[in-house]
Amino acid sequence: MKSKYHFFVAYPRDGEDETKAILNIVKKRLNIDYELWSYADVQDETEYYQEVVEPAIQDAEFVLAFVGKQSEEDYLLNESIRLCSNLNKSMVPIKVGSGRIKEKNWGFRTKVVDFYDESQRIGLIEQMHGWLGLTKVGDVYGSKVVIKADTPSVIMRNDEVLGNDTGDGLKCVFAKGSRDIIVKSKDGCWNRYRYQVADNDSELHFEVSLDGVRQLARYGTSAFMFNPDSDSIPRWDLTNRKDFMLVSSSEDQKKQNIIVNSYNNYYCSKLKPYPEFHPETIEHSKGLCIFFWIISILLCFVALGTGLLIIAGYYIIRRRRDKMVERRNERRRKQLISDTDNWNRSAWYDANERLNKELDLYGLSHTSLRNLGTPSRYLDTVHYEYKQIR
């Protein structure tokens, strides 16, 4: 029963097995050694109480009293509780067996703890942890966790330093729930991870990496450019576990710039240059022109009025033909511009969509590449000349 932890356990004879089972759980939770006394060593209860139990309670900082519905007549248990009351000793009553315990029958100042109720069990463990003056890494009650980094690191949760990992991993306790931790290397690089602990009774191993952010810190973004069509995006210590995932790092801005710059290069490589426009030339037959002139002159001698009408009609027809060719050239030019604009717009949408999917993967904010496909006021700045043979 001797232990460096100064507390005493009082329990009824018929509750020895359950008391041992509960105490084993408590010892494992608090990571302590404690040897429970046994009724097998009791020959005379009065003598045992005077020589063993009474001195132990007087020396104890607190007492755990295991009580059952049918144990109100148990001598050692009752005498232990009576002594605790006389000495004003801190005592926690814990239920064993089935049935409801009536506190008034025992004179307890606090409610009886039902160890199998998780909230009451947590309260008991936390209270004993404080009374025993034990140090904690993380939480008092929860799942046991080992965090192992690939480089010597300091591990923090909010502003609390949980400890250092020098290669063997940091052992700690995390209560059920989700919170963030930061793993920071000696050179100032850090990753923030979000963990999810499903219950208070598991044993979890989390592996963290700082290799990616340390490389990013050492080299410029140009060293990490990639081709979205053929290369995979750099991993940068990304984790895929649902219960432990990377949420941010010291090099998030570099990651964003690398993704944006890579997709900007990809987008620019997809752009189609505007082709050189060659308008259809207008050619007039010299022979036909001379022929009409001769005919017109001859006809002028026959009928000046008729000749003038023919000449006027010729120039009207010629002008209409010129206008028709000019309109056709303008339609062709605009169609070429429209086709090129559509292509470049499609390339812009595709590059932006793929860029933002990659940014989503890292939880980074969306952005948009500058639209280089359609020059400003293109229709007002592109000029062409018609070469005409008159």
Task: Annotate the secondary structure layout.
Layout: E1 7-10, H1 16-30, H2 45-59, E2 62-67, H3 75-87, E3 91-95, H4 103-106, H5 118-132, E4 143-149, E5 153-157, E6 160-165, E7 170-174, E8 177-185, E9 190-197, E10 203-208, H6 211-218, E11 244-249, H7 252-270, E12 282-283, H8 286-302, H9 304-361, H10 378-381, E13 388-389
Parallel strand pairs: 1-2, 2-3, 4-10, 12-13
Antiparallel strand pairs: 4-7, 5-6, 5-8, 8-9, 9-11
Helix pairs in contact: 2-3, 7-9, 8-9
What this model shows, in words?
The protein is an alpha/beta fold and 390 residues long. The protein is built from ten helices and 13 strands. A five-stranded antiparallel beta sheet has the order 6-5-8-9-11, with no helix packed on it. Strands 1-2-3 form a three-stranded parallel beta sheet, with helices on one face. A hairpin with a 4-residue loop joins β8 (177-185) and β9 (190-197).
Spell out the key features of this protein.
three-stranded parallel β-sheet; disordered C terminus; 390 residues; 10 helices; 13 strands; five-stranded antiparallel β-sheet; alpha/beta
